[in-house]
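S., here's the first fold you wanted:
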Amino acid sequence: MKRELIIAIIVMFLFGISSLNVSAGSESEPEITDDEGDAIDNHYPTEGNADHLDIVAAWFSEKSETHIRITIKILSIPSAEDLEDGSDYAVRWYFGGNTEEYRWFAWLDREDNGTEEWEYGKHNDGSYTIVGVCSGQIVYGTPAYIHIDIPKAGIGDVKEGDTLAAPEAITHRNERFAQEPGSYYGVDFTSAGNDYVLPFHDFDGDGIPDSEDTDDDGDGMSDDWEEQNGLNPKDASDADDDPDNDGLNNHNESLYSTNPNDPDSDDDTYTDGEEVAAGSNPNSDISVPPPKEEESFVEENLLLIALSVLVIIIVLIIIIVVLLKRRG
């Protein structure tokens, strides 16, 4: 009995591991995989070679902090001439728990006139609603790669740790092989693949994800302030720089809300450094350092007076010495 129980636990454990549906998002570990040579729908007549519509794999990756890249790997598109007019290359997925409402999608829509539309939006009940325009790139060859770069803010404002669930890829041609005008000829499509979880980023290692951290590099200057003033929010060393040579480094400029690229932020003829040192407001032209007290004649000429007194003393000593010698 114990042996059977142990075996059952092991089987359940292994099954649980195999059912985990989160992958790394790369060509070596794609979220979506598909058989080669299946890019034909037997419900419609076929003609020619469909390798240029045959999905091999598809995956998500981070293009940048603001964009996600979707890559569709196609069996073969040797050149632009092999990319057929009236064909689409798309990936669809769920996000935000809205599995009963709609799926997000992104695609390359090759129009009948040969123009390429890179778009993303929502898919529901066979209807595609365009939400925005994105960018993309086709890498021709065998295999070929179609890269679609979509803004995170445009697809539900996805952030680190969010999941793009049950993605699937599909290619089809509009009407060309359809028996009924206006219908789609499904050339290749995949089953739902593994979920994609957006990776966490923590540049300064403070335990706060960069998407929530207002100071990614931990240099004491907010990311917004650095970007507004031409600094790098991912470079902590710029906190000690003083590009306008006013005596305040960038960190202090941020503390006093002064312009790090203008030595006199309030244009009152006093540098920001001078005003901070004197206790005046470097952002107000009516707040200036107090005037210096005028020095008296003695204070201004103290060294000259001291030298003159010394000369007089020496002269007197010489006179006294001469007079004493004459008396003797």
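And the second, which I think is the more interesting of the pair:
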Amino acid sequence: MRVTTKMMIGNVGRDLFRNTEKLSAANQKVASQKEIAKASDNPLGMGRILDYRKTISTIDQYQENIAQGKAWLEFTESTLDLVSTLLSEAREVASGEHSLSPSAEDITQGGDAASHPISISIPLPEAVTVGVAQFQADYAAGSGTWSISNGLAQYPTAQISGDADGFSVDLDNDGKTDIAATADGSLSADASVSFDLRSLTTEAEQVKGLYDQIMGLANTRLGSSYIFAGHQTGSPPYSRDADYNITYSGDDGGISRIMGASETVQINATGNEIFNKNEDVFSILKDLIDGLDANDEAVINAQTEKLQNAMVQVNNVRIKGGPKLTRLETTDNYWTNYSQHVQEALSATEDADMATAILELKAQETAYETALSAAARVIQKSLVNFLS
């Protein structure tokens, strides 16, 4: 059989093409660091890779759900802790002596010494050094005199003077006013600091402030969601009128997060569960406000036990959140460990052994260069050979 030049050129070309394909594949493996880059490389291996990736994606979603649940529960806990503290303050007001401050108008008019003795506690600014954080002065409407009951232990010669419109204090008895308060709601100290004299408010005003603070906490929002509104997370669940009658606009819907193939956990507590279940927190506070405004001891005292029960009601919701948070954290740790094992399996299937891949690339480069050299030696004829 005669071997023609055309046949040799064809064989050399096919050999070079095969070597080029092998070199390209080896180069692609090193560049991508992947053993399997497409399904045709290893169909069974690619099937396992897709399963591993789906599993990892599912775990990532579970962990994102868990993170959302933890944030919601932790935020709920911190909010209800503040609610419990404010209810405790309201209970202290209800269980204390209730013959305290009248309104600022009563102070201006002098009040009644028998039923309205005035006690003012003022948080002192740092500019006034008296050794304590509070200064307290008591006003007897009948005699029209003020007396110091707390805050000036370091100033035994301090002098206080004034009437129903306010008072002034000379700490070091040098004839100069160091602290001054007026019934219009202002305090000055060392003639350099002025701020609202909130302690001139009545106990009823104090409870109104607690009411509004608790309502603000009941309307707490995490991101764009009101956390105590049930399913109605897009709008504030609580509002009140001028008479402190409350309206709940939420519902009793539960919000859950999926944290496993068949595992869910409810992360929210509704306003009804927290504030309206057995004791109506806002109704209790309204009754306390009404009692304080009317100086009705029976009504005021009746709220003490109710406020204690309301605190228990709030704390019971907090107790439920603890096990849920623990469960979420335990599940999160499980998925973290499981994801690591799946990642390792994916890497073992998909990733190339770089040492082996580099050696293979070098071998293919050498084979390709050798093939080129052989082809150059085999195909040496020129156009002159064909013309001769």
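Why I say that: Residues 97-134, 190-201 have pLDDT under 50 and may be disordered. Residues 104-200 form one domain.

Talk tomorrow,
H.
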